[in-house]
Every structure is written in C-alpha cells, then in structure tokens.
Amino acid sequence: MENAPILVVMAPFIGAYLIPLLGLWWERYCYWVAAAATGLSVLFSLTLVGSVLAQGTIYYTVGGWEPPWGIELVVDPLSAFMCLVVSLVSLLAGAYSRSYIKKELPEGKATSYYTMMLLLTGGLLGVSVTGDLFNLFVMTEIFSVAAYALVPMMGRKGSFLASYRYLILASIGTSLLLLGTGYLYMVTGTLNMADLAARLPVAYAYHPWVVLAALAFFLVAFGVKSALFPLHAWLPDVYTVAPAPVAVLSTLVTKVGAYSLIRVLFSVFGMPLITGAIPVAPALSWMAAAAILAGSVVALQQSDIMRMLAYSSVAHIGYVMLGIGLAVQLGLTGGILHILSHALAKGCLFLCAGAVMYRAGIRRIDDFRGLGYRMPLTMAAFTLAAASIAGIPPTVGFMSKFYLALGAMETGSWVLVAVIVAGSLLTALVYLRVILLMYFGAREGPQLKEEPPLGMLVPIVTLALACAVLGIFVRVPLSLVGPGVRVLLGM
Amino acid sequence: MTTVIIRTTARILAPFIQLFGLYVIVHGPISPGGGFQGGVIVGASLILLALSYDLASAEARAGHAIRIAMDSTGSLLFAGIGLLSLLAGGVFMDYGIIPLPLPAAQVRALMILLIGMAIGVHIMALVSTLFLHMAEDHE
Fold it and tell me: N or C end of chain B, less CB within 10 A?
C-alpha cells in the first residue's frame, strides 16, 4: 500500500465529513462510522509500520508536486510509531465512548462528539506523518480546534471557562508556531523540513537572530501544546471538566506536541544548533526536571481524581521532555518510549476514572474507599496502569524510565538521575494513596458488583494489559523506537 | 430596525449577490477568487436576508438540516475527488491522472473547478450556519 501515508490521515477526516450527514437521520450509526474510520487508521498505521521496517523511510508527494514545492509526507520509524500509538488509543477511546456518552453527554450531542473526535484523531495523525512545516501548523490547528470543542461537551460547571482558557493559551501557541514558520521561510525560502535542515546552517550564519527567534517561538508553541511545566496552566482544568475519553485524547494531544518538538529540534534545526549555539537541550531537561517534581508534588495534594491524574500528566510530560533534552541515544529512546507507556497507562487511568464516575458517580479520592470490591476488574486495571506510571517492573513504564535514567547517566548529570528516581517514588506515592483506599479502606453500605458495561471494560482492560505485555516484550516497541532515534540523531 | 426600504433593497440585491458569488466560484481556476471567496459571498446573501427580514425567513430558505447536509457534501466531494486520482493509480490529489477523454492539463483544470464548487457549497453552508447559529443562541 504505497498510499498508506495519506490514507491514514484521510480515513478519520472522511469519517468526520460523513458523520454530520448521517447524524441528520441516523444518529445511532455515527458510532459505527467513527469506529470504522479509526479502525481503518489503525490498519493503515500497521501497514506503515510494516513498510517502514521493511524498506526504511517512506516519502509521499501529495498531488504529485515534487518537494520542496509540494507537501511531502515523510514516514520514518518514529512517525509510524506515533501513528500506531495515536490511532490505537483513539480507537479504544472511541469504543469506550459508545456507552459513556449515552449517559454522560446531553441528548443530541453524539453527532458532533464523533465528528470532533475524528477531526482530532485525523489532525494528530496528520502531524505525525507530515514532512512540511506549514502542513504541521495546519494539522496542529485542526486538532486544537477539535479539542477546544470537545472539552466542554458535558456542560459541567466551569467547562466553558476551562475550554476558553485552553483556547486562548493554545491559540497563542499556534500563533507562535505560525510566526516561527514564517521566520524560517523568510531566511530560507522553503517550508519542507528536509530542505530546511539543509539550508538552515547557511541561514544561521547570515541571520542568526531570526533563526534563534524562530527556535524560541517553536519552543513556546510546543511547550504550550504539550503542557511543559511553566506552560501547563490550561491542562488541569481541561482534564477535570472534559469527558473521560476526551481526556485520553488530550493526553495524545500533549504527546503529539512533544513529538512535534522532537521533529522541529532534531529534523529541522539539528543537533549542532540546539546543543551548541544556544543550549536549548540542557535548558529543556532542567525545565523537565522541574515539571517532574512540581507535577508530582501537586498531584499528591489533589482531592479530585481527574485533577490528580492531570497533574500527574504534567509530571510525565516532564519525563518525555527530559528524554528530548538529554539528546543522547538512550535518553531519547527512553523519552519516546515514555510517549507510548504514558499514553497507554494514563489512557487506562482516565478511562477507569470515567468508569467510576459512570457507575458510582464518585470523583473525590476519599470516596474510593472499598471500590476495589465493587469494581474488581476496573480497579485491577487501574492498579496495573498505576504500576506502569510509577515505573514498577516489568511494566513498560519501568522500561522507559530505565532508559531515561541510563541516558542521564551517560551524560553524567546525576542530579537528573536523582530527579527521575525521586519522581518515580513521588508518582508511586500519588497512586498508592488511591490504591490503598480502594483495597484496604473500610467498606460501607451494600457492596454490589457494578462493573461498567462491556464496551467500556474492554478498552480499559486492553490498555492495562498492554502496559504489562509491552513491558515484558519491550523489544516490540523498541524495534520502531530504536531506528527512529537513529534517524533523528543521524546515526 | 428593518424598514420597508431595507427589505426591498435586500430582496432585490440578494439574487445578484448570489449570482456574483456563483461567478466567483466557477471563475476560481482562472481568475482571483474561488470556492472559498464565492462561498462566502453566497452565504452572506443569506445573512443579509436574516438581517433585513428575520431569522425565521432565512431559516425557511435554508433550514438547519439542508445546511448541514451541504456542509458535509462539500467536504466529501473534495475528499472524493482527491481519492478519485488515487483510485486511478496516481497519488492523492494528482488530478491529471484521472482517465477522462481529455488532455491531462484539461482534466486537471476540470477537477480544480469541481473542487472549487465543492468548497463553495461547503463554505456557503458554513458561513450562514455560523451566523444563524450564533443569532439563534442570542434570541
């Protein structure tokens, strides 16, 4: 399938165009279109993974216009990895949505919910496969707009304010992204990433300040998108009010923000510029260290489960950014592997929290008392995912943090090693508080078994099992991440 | 405040505005303009009706369901034409390859015209929906 790079993006988009039309008459079929569209994306992602592993990086010219003039899609191992993570987690979040939105969303919202969900997924996949800086901006804008619309869908108190704040902050981010792209275009006359990488050293020699300003813009833009510590202000409120599957998709948004940063730093600016001229990479790792510690400590103080998970996300984006900041092979491997492990584990945790709200109507952590007996399977999945987040072997979360620690040792920054370990301990503490309450808290009232419906339980259990299985068979994700990192570092 | 002068002017102007919008859409491939600009002009004519008469009369001309259907159909047509070249064995949106009994350059021009029309349909629905939706919320 030589057309897989475009089809992986078009499948959700065409689904998104079809659903409003279908929703006019047959609202109940919208779910199936959404499921089919994301399912197709998963298939095309698998095709991409297969061909990338077999024949290396894939180049695809949209409309037959040769690069650097036309839009080029470039799928290297890292892009294929992101496609697979994004499409699989969206598929599971979509499957979960079917029962969830029947109860939690106001009547008649299903059509717009699935439309926005597919637009969001399509935008994320578009960012993952593109090899054109302006196309990256367009796709970022698409998934951002879809995210703004999805967040307040439940109409909870404060949800519009949270979405509006998100809109303002993220729009500043995307404006800076456009501005940075414009600056680079001004000094190089091209938008194609590979072409930019070739021309930037010369452009930097002539116009160093323009290139550095563009670099600063990109850092802030993707910092906002990925909720890197000082720029995370939008995230806790958004995760608190959003429907649980949308919170899962939002974790993908932050991951794709981190991926875009990797792309721009390593594939456009290149190592000499980000470690030599201006120490961007070391600065990034110190910001990440601050994110890990601050996020975990604040998560420890939360009484609302969704808020706790949100602050924990801030900490774990820190881990991904730390890997980027280390800019060595082992560190980057850990950071990128953490994209996968955090997407799986946090996805599972958000879905579990959503299921608890769906069945028991509980949000406060103190009310989780004895829940381990009321929802045994859901809570077992919660525990497994929490183990992965905290980095307990043999889960995939342990593997990614292990690689991060090895990378930090390689660069000789022992403070960062200490931060990684301390962050893990703090995370373990955050989740242990909930788990202890669930299993050892005093049980009150009648203890009925009330697992969520099967459509919600299957995604939860799948994600939790993936955390454990991929940790044991870590060679499977590493077979993509390893070559991806080698391509990034030009090895 | 809508007076008889405003209503009459709007009623006389509306068909000309729409005709001009259609002209901008179909002349997109060879002159400034195109689907987006023409679609905005046609959509604006509906907004003019809503402003000079009332929302109900604009709604009666193009109801919610029709607008949503046009919106979706426009985008689907665009994506469909893109996929057509893929089915013909080329890459996405490589229109020249679509097997029609015409030279490749003409096929390309024809497809760009069709895409312009698809965008026009989509945008005219979108622009009027944006206005009517916000106005209805306000009432």
Answer: N
